[in-house]
Design goal:
- This protein is α/β, with parallel strands linked by helices and 300 residues long.
- The chain has a single domain (4-290), classed as Alpha-Beta Complex (Spore Coat Polysaccharide Biosynthesis Protein SpsA, Chain A), CATH 3.90.550.
- Helix content is 26%, strand content 27%.
- The longest helix is centred in the C-terminal third of the chain and has 17 residues, at 219-235.
Length: 300
């Protein structure tokens, strides 16, 4: 059995100002996704599933999927606002997708192995995929035993603006809680974010956070489908409500239905949250190529 990699690429790139999933950052026009697929393949993953919006399907197939012919199996699924369970009502004026865990649900029909989930626009590093693959290969036939790759928040901030992160509490090797926090930034050397009451919460730079790199078994789809129905009943009328993976995981941990192991990695995360981040990412990729971590041209 080889695990599957599910890549969430349906985001609109609102802060970035374009389809950052298709933006070249490598010397031969490679995207961050290309490096993710390359790392996953050499770690032992056997299939890639992309979640995209159908309105950029043609561009995506031409510029991305075509590169992987003869390299690895690829499937593409579509996340649309109207992709909701039969009989569920929602705000028809909504203009954005339902969030990361809804995107995961789109993979249900094409994934039947343990699988990893990543963001399309985040670079996670070779070692992270190696750790994930080991966990997932050992997870065949199991249920309710998931994992997450943890990163230190101080290494995941953008110099160009604030970010959202899943802030984690860990007991031993396992996640005990995860809370999605927005507008996290560094000010005068202090990492902090605003709370609902207007005050600020500070975070130590080594606080573990989720960068949306998860490992699941197929039973996770069943939990997600049930929770999405509940979410739509409670928040389906809100125009911008989102069904997040961290919220889902936290609820399952609190209910003692699952465990989620936090995997440590020597890899450094980086990503393109804002357009201004792009040049820094290009420099880091070039350095990794110079260090021999990647060939100059990934797909020949």
């Amino acid at each position: 059995m080889k695990p599957t990699l599910l890549i969430l690429a349906a985001g609109m790139g609102s802060r970035y100002g374009g389809l950052k999933q298709l933006d070249g950052i490598g010397p031969c026009g490679e995207t961050i996704m290309d490096y993710s697929v390359f790392d996953a393949k050499r770690a032992g993953f056997g299939k890639i599933v992309f979640v995209i919006r159908s309105n950029f399907k043609e561009d995506f197939f031409k510029r991305i999927v075509s590169r992987y012919a003869n390299h690895i199996d690829v499937d593409v699924v579509y996340q649309e606002i109207e992709s909701v369970p039969e009989g569920c009502a929602y705000n028809t004026e909504r203009t954005k997708p339902w969030g990361t865990n809804h995107a995961v649900l789109m993979g249900k029909k094409v994934i039947n192995t343990p699988f990893a989930v990543i963001n399309a626009d985040d670079f996670y590093g070779k070692d992270s995929y190696g750790e994930l693959a080991k966990f997932l290969i050992a997870s065949e036939g199991r249920k309710n035993s998931y994992c997450m790759v943890g990163y230190q928040i101080g290494n995941t901030l953008s110099e160009s603006g604030t970010v959202s992160r899943g802030v984690c509490s860990v007991e031993g090797e396992y996640l005990s809680s995860i809370v999605e926090c927005g507008k996290i930034g560094r000010e005068n050397g202090v990492i902090r974010y605003p709370k609902a009451d207007g005050t600020f919460e500070t975070l130590e730079s080594d606080t573990p956070v989720s960068m949306n790199m998860w490992g699941f078994t197929p039973d996770y789809f069943d939990y997600s489908e049930e929770a999405f129905r509940t979410f739509l009943k409670e928040r389906g009328n809100e125009p911008t409500s989102e069904f997040y993976i961290p919220t889902m995981i936290n609820d399952l941990i609190v209910a003692k239905k699952i465990t989620c192991k936090v995997l440590r990695t020597t890899s450094k995360w980086f990503g393109v949250t804002y357009a201004e981040d792009k040049q820094q990412v290009i420099s880091k990729i070039n350095q990794l190529i110079a260090d021999g971590c990647y060939p100059k041209q990934l797909w020949e």
